[in-house]
Design a protein that fits this description.
Blueprint: E1 7-11, H1 16-27, E2 31-36, H2 39-53, E3 58-62, H3 70-80, E4 87-90, H4 105-133, E5 136-141, H5 154-173, E6 179-185, H6 193-196, H7 203-206, H8 211-224, E7 228-230, H9 233-244, H10 247-258
Parallel strand pairs: 1-2, 1-4, 2-3, 4-5, 5-6, 6-7
Helix pairs in contact: 1-8, 3-4, 4-5
The chain binds NADP nicotinamide-adenine-dinucleotide phosphate.
């Protein structure tokens, strides 16, 4: 085990891919700041990290990151706690299955505020500190949906296209620094995401990968400072196909994944 006394802040640390990432960081000796809404669940994860990995310091910040001031509040709280954040993981994200016109606008706003606004704001706040130290790593959760306009998941897929584009551009801006930005590109992954998005009976949900495997790909690419981490070979093939096929064909293919699995 590598011994480090660095701190990683992970949003969405209470379940799924984010939770799996907490264990990878803890295994390498990182201290952790865990962010999500469910405080009880975050405290359970914190206790597990302390007992299983002997993690020296785990802080929990319960926050709804779909609120417009939430990123600034998280940043202020880490300052108040005297924490220096060496790694920022923007994992928290949600989606909603359905025709765009059937989904309440408040849900669209939740998706955009969480998947885009809070991600941009947290990155801006912590990146300035990283630049002052000229060290840091950032991991962003994109998705195969970033490459595929996805009917029945339109706002979510567009939000992930934003994340991927933003991460690539930022990575280039930072090329002469010691700060790296890595975008993790999972395909369907077996987490609570599909249940929460009302997409549990879809073709995509039936083809889900293990979250531990997806997290490991992301973690290893992050530590190497790679721009992209494609979760599996199959996702890699889909990315390749999506970049060469006409957009209309890619969109049709993505729609099939969001249809009910019969
Ligand atoms: N599962 C997939 O198929 C898949 C594929 C590609 C990309 N991804 C991306 O992977 C990331 C993690 O998702 P997952 O699959 O691991 O799903 P998950 O198990 O549902 O985890 C989502 C995490 O985000 C947190 N979260 C949700 N809303 C939040 C809010 N308003 N404020 C703060 N935290 C919030 C959740 O905690 P609380 O509920 O406690 O707040 C939870 O910790 C997301 O960005 C997702 O878009 C997932």
């Amino acid at each position: 085990m590598e011994t480090v006394s660095k701190t990683a802040l992970i949003t969405g640390a209470s379940s799924g891919i984010g939770y799996e990432l907490t264990k990878l960081f803890a295994g390498d000796g990182y201290n952790l700041v865990l962010v999500a809404r469910n405080e009880d669940q975050l405290n359970k994860v914190a206790d597990e990290l302390r007992s299983e990995f002997k993690t020296k310091r785990v802080d929990v910040i319960a926050k709804d990151l779909s609120n417009i001031n939430a990123a600034a509040e998280v940043y202020e709280e880490t300052k108040r706690l005297g924490l220096e954040i060496n790694v920022l993981v923007n994992d928290a994200g949600v989606g909603q299955r359905g025709n765009f016109w059937e989904i309440d606008f408040s849900k669209d706003l939740e998706i955009i505020n969480l998947n885009i606004i809070s991600l941009v704001h947290l990155t801006k706040l912590y990146l300035k500190d990283m630049l002052a130290r000229n060290e840091g790593r950032i991991l962003q959760l994109a998705s195969i949906a970033a490459y595929q306009p996805t009917p029945m998941l339109a706002v979510y897929a567009a939000s992930k296209a934003f994340v991927l584009s933003f991460g690539d551009a930022l990575s280039n801006e930072l090329k002469d620094t010691n700060i790296t930005v890595t975008s993790l590109i999972p395909g369907p992954t077996d987490t609570d995401f599909f249940n929460k998005a009302g997409a549990e009976n879809t073709v995509a949900a039936s083809k889900a990968d293990e979250p531990a495997k997806v997290a490991k790909e992301g973690y290893e690419a992050l530590m190497k400072g790679e721009h992209h981490a494609v979760a599996t070979a199959l996702v890699g093939a889909q990315v390749a196909m999506s970049t060469v096929l006409p957009n209309e064909a890619v969109t049709k293919m993505a729609r099939k994944y969001m249809e009910e699995d019969k």
